[in-house]
Design a protein that fits this description.
five-stranded mixed beta sheet; about 55% helix; alpha/beta; 5 strands
Length: about 500
């Protein structure tokens, strides 16, 4: 049933359209199509980064949920790998298609919230580094942003237009957002923050409809709740108390890092426009001067943006944590800006993406980190040639080398739980480390700070305690265009005795 929309305070008018980029005409669609095609060409151009390989490992272990994250990405990857085979392109196709859907949802939102500049809003969002990242790398943020965007589409219909049928549909996407990443719960927060803050819409809280949406969301979230209940609430504790344990006390170092990374993802001109909107929005909230549509956009952007900034003063906030807020924030900025912002942002986007493609394809700047896309296939080939029947591989650099070797080889590979340390999702695998006692394995230790592996290094003490005897093996150096870009030290565990302390 469609009812007369609730009349709230007057909304700020979007800037009048100017030029051919204002509407979704042929010029805008040509640019969006060309950008999407360029991203598609890059999909097979580089190896999986460790995070992608780790989520592909999730997909090999069907479960209601997982230690680090909810299950939606893993389920989608499992489907893609089953349909298309065990290929990196099958993994990459999932975020690419999901992000195309996110861009379509953004266009629908732009038609509603920025009717005078829909094309400019679409170009602002779709040419950012954030959309490129989401398109090319399989992260839980890809399904999260699609569910978040569609959630906003139907919440706008439900709350602003009082279309009752839209409430349960919105609830579906509120639940899927949570199934993608725990950040999705902020959609629930945004909904009730908007209804509580908007006097004309507050009476909806006395109707069953928002609660219907929340109830549907809880039904969709049941797999996450059940997995946590069966595993001592491990995932919830890791993402709350576990994160709190990493707090380093007040400081500006993490805040500065957050601002730099957001400038890369959103691009500096657009990030500045979003910051201005956020400042003006906070002032408008204090004066109760925001119209219904601006209040809606504020409710779904400010909590996450402000929360991220405040958290970054005491703990590292990862760059992708703020991405869902930008769906509403970019719409908000587009309402308040003119063509100049688009020109500056497109220029910044061109520079950023040229640098990005050069680094991606030619790797002129060697990353002193295991969070790289270079060398994993070569490492898998080298180890495959060394491993004899009945032997296994293990590593202890968090999850990275283990996940990459599981994807790029058929080897029997384990994580740092073999050394008696916590190993994220590998702690919930099907193999008890104690069952490997007496067997021989190769321990692989990445050294990103010294890829040339200069000098002798003794085996880690934790490895010594886990093996009856150890022998140093020839290290592995990965070379690219005449340069050594990765280095791995290798020790042979002649007889594994089990996790130390167990």
């Amino acid at each position: 049933m469609t009812e007369t929309p609730i009349s709230g305070a007057p909304s700020a008018e979007a800037p009048p359209g100017q030029g051919r980029w204002s509407s979704l005409g042929p010029a805008v669609w040509m640019v969006l199509g060309a950008v999407a095609a360029a991203r598609a060409l890059l999909l097979p151009a580089f190896e999986l980064v460790p995070q992608e390989a780790y989520y592909a490992f999730y997909a090999r272990e069907p479960a209601l949920s997982y230690f680090d994250h909810p299950p939606l990405l893993a389920w989608l990857l499992a489907l893609a790998l089953r349909l298309a085979g065990h290929h990196a392109l099958a993994v990459r196709a999932v975020p690419f298609l999901l992000t195309l859907g996110t861009q379509a949802a953004f266009v629908v939102l732009a038609r509603r919230f920025v009717p005078g500049a829909t094309g400019r809003a679409a170009l602002l969002f779709c040419t950012t580094g954030a959309v490129t990242l989401l398109s090319l790398v399989a992260l839980p943020d890809a399904p999260l942003l699609l569910a978040w965007g569609l959630g906003l589409v139907f919440l706008a219909s439900a709350a602003l237009d009082t279309k009752r049928w839209a409430w349960p549909v919105a609830g579906l996407f509120l639940g899927l957002a949570f199934d993608a990443k725990y950040t999705g719960a902020l959609l629930w927060v945004g909904l009730f923050a908007f209804l509580a803050a908007s006097a004309p819409h507050r009476r909806l809280l006395a109707t069953p409809w928002p609660w219907v949406a929340l109830g549907v969301a809880q039904l969709l979230a049941l797999p996450v709740y059940v997995w946590n209940a069966e595993h001592g609430w491990a995932s919830f504790l890791f993402q709350t108390a576990g994160r709190a344990e990493t707090a380093a006390g007040p400081g500006l170092r993490h805040l500065a890092a957050l601002l730099v990374t957001q400038g890369v993802l959103l691009l500096p001109p657009l990030l500045g426009a979003v910051a201005l909107c956020a400042g003006r929005g906070l002032s408008g909230l204090r004066r109760r001067a925001l119209g219904a549509e601006e209040l809606f956009l504020a409710a779904f952007s400010l909590p996450l943006l402000l929360g991220g900034v405040l958290l970054s003063t005491v703990v590292l906030v990862k760059p992708n944590w703020l991405l869902p807020a930008y769906l509403a924030a970019v719409l908000w900025a587009a309402r308040a800006s003119g063509p100049r912002l688009l020109r500056w942002n497109l220029a910044s986007s061109a520079v950023l993406h040229v640098l990005f493609v050069v680094e991606l394809l030619f790797y002129p700047v060697v990353l002193r980190s295991d969070d790289t896309w270079v060398g994993w296939r070569a490492l898998a080939g080298e180890l495959t040639a060394r491993v004899r029947p009945g032997q296994f591989i293990f590593s202890a650099d968090d999850y990275k080398t283990t996940a990459e070797l599981l994807f790029y080889s058929d080897l029997e590979v384990y994580g740092r739980n073999l050394l008696g340390e916590r190993a994220l999702q590998f702690d919930y695998g099907r193999v008890d480390p104690s069952t490997l006692r007496g067997r021989e394995g190769l321990f692989v230790d990445s050294d990103p700070a010294d890829p040339e592996l200069s000098g002798e290094t003794p085996p880690p003490e934790r490895l010594v305690r886990a093996c009856r005897a150890i022998r140093a093996e020839r290290p592995i150096r990965i070379r690219l265009d005449g340069r050594t870009v990765r280095g791995f030290r290798v020790w042979r565990c002649l007889s594994y005795v089990g996790p130390p302390g167990r």
